[in-house]
Amino acid sequence: MEKIKVQDSVGAILIHDMTQIIPGVIKGPRFRKGHVVQEEDIPVLLSMGKEHIYVWDQTPGLIHENEAAERLARVVSGSGLVLDEPKEGKITLTAAHDGLLYSSENGILELNALEGVILATLHNHYPVKKGDKVAGTRVVPLMIDEKVILAAEEIAGTYSNPILDVRPLKHLKVGIVVTGSEVYHGRIQDKFGPVLRAKVENWGSAVIEQALASDDVSLIQSNIQNQISMGAEMILVSGGMSVDPDDVTPAAIKGMGTELITYGAPVLPGAMFMLAYLGDIPIMGLPGCVMYSKKTVFDLVAPRMLTGERLSRLDIIKLGMGGLCLECPVCTYPRCSFGK
């Protein structure tokens, strides 16, 4: 690029957006890339503190910040993302639909380790709505060596999954088994079922059956099997998850020949959470906190399974960092530290 005095710039073509800031009035691009400078622009440019402007000098091997940001945005983007037009060398990525943002933490680290590259994103597994801003790309210099962008493209190509994508939640058929002799015999009203139903429906899935079971292993198991025979693709078993001998939900789930992923999670509230699979059907044992706490381990893991992800023990263990809910009087999840 070539540096020219503002007073000598009439007829020159700007190669970058130029921002004007007037406190309380405006902050944004006053002149866009490609603008041909006019005589009346000179005093405006000077009032913006510009003594010089830069024009493209076509130096081989250098590319403009807008092109670099756009190439970065495209190379990190998987499905479910929309890219806006470059503005002052930045590209914003937004969600094309509701879902969860999946981001490669290692990929983001590798890209940002490149000199001059910027990729800022929301946290991995962040729930988003259509139109939400999820990431932004840019480069630091106005002009950058194309080799840097080629290196970024090469890095992204080494990952089997996109660096970023928004995965929609599947619409599953869900079965609920509420355990506890006190509920089964009608001594107290079931408060667990309505909470679970509301969450499931809010995620776009449907409860096909809700059953009550006493603290009896065989009854819990028969209810689970019945719901699977009805087409349930996910089973939620509430209550009876402590180490108290009377709490038999874990024994019932394990006794069905399931693949046990975990009994216990480094999340508060939700430490006594259980996850197992019967074939491809996830079965979750949900502790009592899910009934009365606004957000728990259930809110962190269920949406991921609704995208089709099969969780491992390592996935659950990783929840420990950020797994402490502060249980604020006014819940702002996901705009908080929980699950991050």
UniProtKB/TrEMBL annotation:
GO biological process: Mo-molybdopterin cofactor biosynthetic process
UniProt keyword annotation of Glycosyltransferase present: no
Annotated function: Catalyzes the insertion of molybdate into adenylated molybdopterin with the concomitant release of AMP.
Keywords: Magnesium, Metal-binding, Molybdenum, Molybdenum cofactor biosynthesis, Transferase
Family: Belongs to the MoeA family.
Domain named MoaB/Mog: residues: 175-307
Pfam families with a match to the protein in the record: MoCF_biosynth
The protein's annotated pathway: Cofactor biosynthesis; molybdopterin biosynthesis
Record lineage: Bacteria, Bacillati, Bacillota, Clostridia, Eubacteriales
Recorded GO MF terms: metal ion binding; molybdopterin molybdotransferase activity
Catalysed conversion reaction: adenylyl-molybdopterin + molybdate = Mo-molybdopterin + AMP + H(+)
EC code(s) of this entry: 2.10.1.1
Cofactor dependence: Mg(2+)
SMART domains per the UniProt record, alphabetical: MoCF_biosynth
UniProt source species: Desulfosporosinus metallidurans
GO cellular component: cytosol
InterPro entries, per database record: MoaB/Mog-like_dom_sf, MoaB/Mog_dom, MoeA-like
Name of the molecule in the record: Molybdopterin molybdenumtransferase
